[in-house]
Design a protein that fits this description.
With 584 residues, this protein is of the alpha/beta class. The chain is 47% helix and 16% strand.
Length: 584
């Protein structure tokens, strides 16, 4: 069959459908032509010589199949017969057992002759109608898969199977007698599919989920869609299933992009002279560890999914985009030179720069590097290594600012869910710097103290807002969760080169001078000096500013609390200096 023969996008029954007739029995051929002539376009051919035209249905007789059985099967194995529900009708006037199961599995309907011409017309019209409906309803999901994905079709009347095509039977490894007039819910043993079908009878066509079929000769993944159709004045249901096993095996389960194994195979396949120039982009999402540590791995997964979507939106349809592993992606761009790949590189950067992650408004940033293979002297591993080196160069430049942007988003989110307002942080920094200057801190330590005032409660970002803003007494379990925030904050800070030097101060800002603090029960000078300063100024600001559930204290009342707690909660020397500073 010529390679340029393709299936139509849809069948328009208002136009004359084209029927390919492959028949050796001359009398039967004349009968069929007489019945169909005028309403359909008849294309005559031999099995080994298809016409170079589009067609909508094949009519074949058993003589043609017996004579060319091997060629017919070979054509199907090469997938040269269109896969999208192209119906095949067998006209026969004798037993068909001698055709064999391989051939019979390709047949959608068998018409024994002599038969009434109305029945022959009805059968052909039914198959064309089903084919057209299938194409229209499956267009969206079909486009998202490879162009040879088989489509199985099943017509249901009150859950009972009225019609199935050969692909449906092939996917489920069933014979027609196993399924016709049976309840569809009895055909599938997968509980998830049964639940989907039961719900979909009420909510038609809302989704097209993937299911794993087991208990077959091999496990298969299918995509399913159920939609209502009006056919021959009846309200029926159309179930479409598609075997996407090969599609799934080549895909990353999280992002839906190609996986590493697939892209490595494609790199080898494209490593030929006629595909030059061959370009490759390597990408790495900035700040994934910080997002995982702060919001958890579910948010980290959302970040990777969003990054994958942005890459798809930025690249061309023919580019091969894969998740290489972890936070890394590889884009293979065959047949384009440095000028074009540079445009795509810039488009990726621009799209990421404008993007945020959902309701958290987390900024998304990506490091990129690309390389171009112009001659066969450079192998694909060298191409990959060059792109990776450039990507890490870019990451060193951008990673700090990316993490800083994520941190700022975290602090903004904390302010929205707790009492850590910008005013509180501003006052805290002013008081901390003033006390630091009074006790003679160096400029670098003053800078660290200012940053500590910003970051000290960042661990609270993982605590639910209802606990942080709770007006009444905390439950024991809630208090235990609160007490974890210094360690969580230290862990978050340690994930960034810019803030890791403050991780111990963040961990220790709720320790007490007498050793009764948390999380580690440090005592006296075991507590980092900057953490001791922060604990005093933080307590004073909370007391004087108040909380929704607690009235503020006067300056004098707050200073009395500081004096009373010197030597127990606070470093006595620092407490004395602070009281002097505020009293002046």
């Amino acid at each position: 069959m010529p390679k340029n023969i393709e299936r139509k996008n849809k069948i328009n029954l208002d136009d004359k459908a084209k029927i390919l007739v492959l028949m050796e029995h001359e009398e039967n051929k004349k009968i069929l032509q007489k019945i169909l002539q005028g309403d359909y376009q008849i294309l005559e051919s031999k099995v080994n010589d298809f016409p170079e035209e589009l067609f909508d249905l094949i009519v074949v007789d058993e003589e043609a199949l017996i004579k060319h059985k091997r060629k017919f099967i070979e054509l199907v194995k090469k997938e040269e017969i269109p896969k999208i529900n192209l119906p095949v009708v067998l006209i026969t006037n004798k037993t068909i057992k001698q055709l064999g199961e391989k051939v019979l599995s390709l047949i959608d309907e068998v018409i024994e002759v002599p038969s009434r011409k109305e029945y022959i017309r009805f059968t052909i019209e039914k198959l064309l109608k089903i084919s057209g409906i299938t194409l229209n309803l499956s267009e969206k999901i079909y486009r998202s898969l490879s162009q040879d994905t088989p489509i199985g079709v099943c017509i249901l009347n009150d859950n009972k199977i009225n019609y199935v095509n050969s692909t449906f039977l092939s996917i489920l490894e069933k014979n027609k007698n196993d399924v016709l007039e049976k309840n569809i819910l009895d055909i599938f043993v997968n509980e998830k599919i049964i639940n989907f079908l039961e719900k979909s009878f009420d909510y038609h066509g809302k989704n097209d989920p993937n299911f794993k079929l087991q208990n077959l000769s091999k496990d298969r993944w299918i995509k399913a869609t159920l939609s209502p159709v009006k056919f021959i004045d009846k309200e029926l249901d159309l179930l479409i299933i598609m075997d996407i096993s090969e599609h799934i095996s080549a895909r990353d389960s999280l992002t839906g992009l190609y996986n590493r194994k697939f892209i490595e195979e494609e790199m080898s396949r494209y490593n030929v002279k006629r595909q030059l120039p061959l370009s490759l982009i390597m990408a790495d999402v900035n700040g994934l560890k910080m997002v995982n540590d702060t919001y958890g791995h579910e948010m980290g997964d959302k970040l990777l999914i969003r990054a994958a979507k942005l890459l798809e939106e930025s690249c061309r349809e023919e580019d091969l985009i894969s998740r290489w592993g972890g936070d890394e992606f590889v884009v293979l761009l065959p047949g384009i030179d440095e000028k074009i790949v540079n445009k795509i590189y810039k488009r990726i950067k621009d799209n990421f720069r404008e993007a945020t992650l959902g309701v958290k408004d987390l900024p998304i940033s990506i490091a990129l590097g690309f390389a171009v293979k112009k001659t066969m002297d450079k192998d694909t591993q060298a191409l990959l290594a060059e792109a990776e080196d450039k990507m890490y160069d870019n990451k060193r430049v951008e990673s700090k600012s990316a993490k800083s942007n994520i941190l700022q988003a975290l602090l903004s989110a904390l302010g929205a869910k707790s009492h850590e307002t910008e005013d509180h942080v501003r006052r805290l920094k002013e008081l901390a710097i003033k006390l630091g200057e009074k006790v003679g801190l160096s400029v670098s330590d003053l800078d660290r103290l200012s940053l500590l005032a910003n970051l000290h409660d960042i661990g609270k970002t993982k605590i639910p807002a209802e606990i942080l803003k709770k007006a009444g007494k905390l439950e024991e379990s809630e208090w235990e969760l609160i007490k974890k925030h210094p360690e969580t904050g230290a862990y978050i800070a340690s994930s960034s080169e810019d803030f890791s030097h403050l991780s111990e101060e963040i961990r220790s800002h709720h320790e007490r001078w007498d050793g009764d603090g948390y999380p580690n029960g440090l005592e006296g000078e075991e507590i980092p000096y900057l953490a001791r300063i922060l604990s005093i100024v933080d307590a004073y600001d909370v007391m004087t500013a108040g909380r929704p559930y607690k009235d503020p204290l006067s300056k004098e009342e707050a200073l009395k609390e500081i004096r009373d707690c010197a030597g127990s909660q606070f470093d006595p020397n620092l407490a004395e200096k602070f009281v002097e500073m505020i009293s002046d």
